[in-house]
Amino acid sequence: MNMFELLDQDAAFFELAQRRNVIFYHKGYFSHSIVAAMSEVVKLQLEVAGVNAPTRRKLFSSFIELAQNIVHYSSDSLVEGGEQGGAIREGAVCISNEGERHLMLCVNPIATTAVSNLRERLEPLRNMSLEEIKQAYKVSLRSDAPEESKGAGLGFLTMARDASAPLEFAFCPRVDAPETTLFCLKTII
Length: 189
Hints:
InterPro entries: DUF6272 (IPR046239). This protein is an alpha+beta fold.
């Protein structure tokens, strides 16, 4: 592919992102320092886009949860976490708006063996009322973090609490790597 073909593809992607009202998009590697830098961009982009303060807070909070999910649980790592520093892992996050609604999408590879456990944690959130989600959040705050959790175990509850519709998720097996499944999560705020 020559340089002009690449430029045409870049221009087409840019136009598509504008038509879809993409506020922020990153596909690549995530680490704690990369997430910190991206969070500054996300804050500014939301402000420039004219998003009201309460919605900005919810979007920013969900962005942090999605990005941390990638840093902690993506099965594709460039560098594993350890004494030298944090992990650098692959995934993608997109924030766009459709009128008054904002969509957040996250995709990252996970171990296929983790799918059923993750599904068991997410499925109940689909049917819980906002009051039930808030109650579960309070209970989780008072209890110990789940053994397999690398955070406080509040991420999905935080996103569900801030969402205006139930969280949507899917697991897409990878034909080329059966030990890996793509975890896709969508929240509407």
